[in-house]
């Protein structure tokens, strides 16, 4: 007697009340494959842990999941077709299960990758399902990384693009979404911040780096990575992968085209050589000449938003990294630094210790560029080194915008009097 067809839904169960969705971090069985009861099918990552999804029965697994995809709790993410239908659909490109069209199985053979393409794709977290070609070469993978589109020019339909106020996502933005979903979207991201001591600084003859700190932050952070290896690592298969090299990623964004350019051996380069590498990378970025491997090899990232005036940044981790440092503006110091880190790899105390040491190192590095405050009263101009001023001391105070000022005793008392009268 032939067994009846049984279709078993696999629903993602919520294990944390604060989560509404999770990330597919690994697909172990393709749609259309025969699986056994309790066989490991997928790894789904929530904010607290990685959940292993196993098969509830023997049969054919049916799904449309891709690694890096977001899935919602309480919804069907896959199904198991058992009984007579399982035997009949194995190896067939498409078949119906129990007459339900939405449960048709796309069991087509995935594309084959050349050895070089397979190694490059694996290095950047890409899967065969992302390519629409029977055979994928290394050049195809590099083109995917460069353009963010599927080989063959196919892409998912976008109904919004045809709407009155719709717009299709650009290829470079799709690539950014993919990388961030596998970076910040797949991590336990935390952020700590700190101030770099010092005041206004001027770097005469610095050219590209005039009044900027990105090169100094990259220089000091790269050397600190030697003693904080967990911040130069990535989280893979429930284990910490320590990167063998320190490759500093410098974020370039000319408006709508954000990339992270990797500087090899950043922990060993003298500052002038490091500056030369960053400047050369930026010039090639402007000319759109950076190679795919230069945009995917960084082991940590530095992004500079100080010139925008932003005083707070919540940086997002790129894929295969556990640390990103953002430079922001400050009204009381030279700048502020924010460190985004993967809490699965390290702890807040270690991240805060790294950031404190980095702020200290950068403060020391910028000391030659920080202009000493002019020793005169901010109100009347009296100077302690002028015998005729009658002033031998200046008192520090904060101005209306939080700036640090020096005042002689007379003006200091007058300011305090005005403040008291206004209270």
Order of helices and strands: EEEEEEEEHEEEHEHHEHEEEEHEEEHEEH
Question: Taking all residues together, what is the mean pLDDT?
Answer: 77
Q: Helix proportion of residues, in percent?
A: 10-25%
Strand order, largest beta sheet:
13-20-19-18-16-17
CATH topology of the largest domain: Chloramphenicol Acetyltransferase
Rg (C-alpha, Å): 28 Å
Report the CATH architecture of the largest domain: 2-Layer Sandwich
Shape, per Cα inertia axes = elongated
Low-confidence stretches: 1-5, 88-108, 148-163
Indicate the CATH class of the largest domain.
Alpha Beta
Helix/sheet category? alpha+beta
Number of helices: 8
Largest sheet: 6 strands, mixed
Please give the number of β-strands: 22
Count of domain modules = 4
Strand content is 25-35%
Tell me the distance between the termini.
93 Å
- The CATH superfamily of the largest domain appears as Chloramphenicol acetyltransferase-like domain
In short:
By secondary structure, the protein is an alpha+beta fold. The protein has helices spanning 84-89, 115-123, 138-147, 171-182, 214-224, 271-286, 348-366, 409-422, and strands spanning 6-11, 21-27, 34-35, 40-45, 50-54, 59-63, 70-72, 76-82, 94-97, 100-106, 112-113, 135-136, 189-196, 233-236, 239-242, 248-253, 258-263, 300-304, 323-328, 335-342, 395-398, 404-407.
Description:
There is one protein chain. The chain has 423 residues and is α+β, with helices and mostly antiparallel strands. The protein has eight helices and 22 strands. It has a six-stranded mixed beta sheet, with helices on one face. Helix 2 links the parallel strand 11 and strand 12. Helix 2 (115-123) packs parallel to helix 3 and helix 5 crosses helix 7. The N and C termini lie far apart (93 Å).
